[in-house]
Amino acid sequence: MPTASNGDVSLYYRVDGDGSESSTPVVFVSEAGLGGWSWGWQHAALTGPFETVVWDLRGTGRSDAPSGPYDLETLASDLEAVLADCSVRKAHVVAAGFGGAVALTAARTSSRIETLTLLGTAAREDAFELEDLLAPPDDREALEESLESALSAEFRDAQPEVCEGIVDWRADGDADEAGWRAQLAALEGFDAREWLVELTLPTLVCHGTGDELVPADAGRDLARGLPRGQFEPLDGAGHLCFVERSRTVNDRILGFLESYEDG
Asked: What is the pTM of this model?
């Protein structure tokens, strides 16, 4: 399996699709603790028009899990290592929740990031309340309960088979508690509000208005603080808005990226 190295840490990634000769690859950065399964809906829509890269954060899935705590600068350098190993000179980065904090940190120093798409993300530590998302991969009951805070009641009632599938995928590919907590420790002291103005790259911020883990107002404030930020609310959707409203989110992302590519 393909891996990138950052020091002595091995990072698993998967590349799919060829894209067009002129298109820029799309690279995903996951929510804390979640495996690559979480990008299944976007991966299916974006692979083809674009080459896509899905990778496991250190502490998750098939990547190494050194003891924590981690910090955002190290995780940002992991992203840089994956981009370099894939020979990606420029990338559209799509990130969720905690992964958005990693992507914002990386965008301060990396010359490889062309655009950002941030889903359920905030610019400051105290807006993240991700504890309820934590569940041991070997405890199906806990995994099911964790979805109550991550997905809206409307979605859970209408799509029970999808929720059951998510439990299966989480059991197979998510981080254990040690890896999850090592990642979340990186949020300590995170406050990007003073330096958001430095990030002049185009940024799409999508946020479910029913998000119980990162409030939608925090996403709106994030978009306002970015010189080229645009905010897209998703009415009633929960934290995993890109799962609940995958068609809408995919359309928004494709439109955003294609307009940038055409421009």
From this structure: 0.96
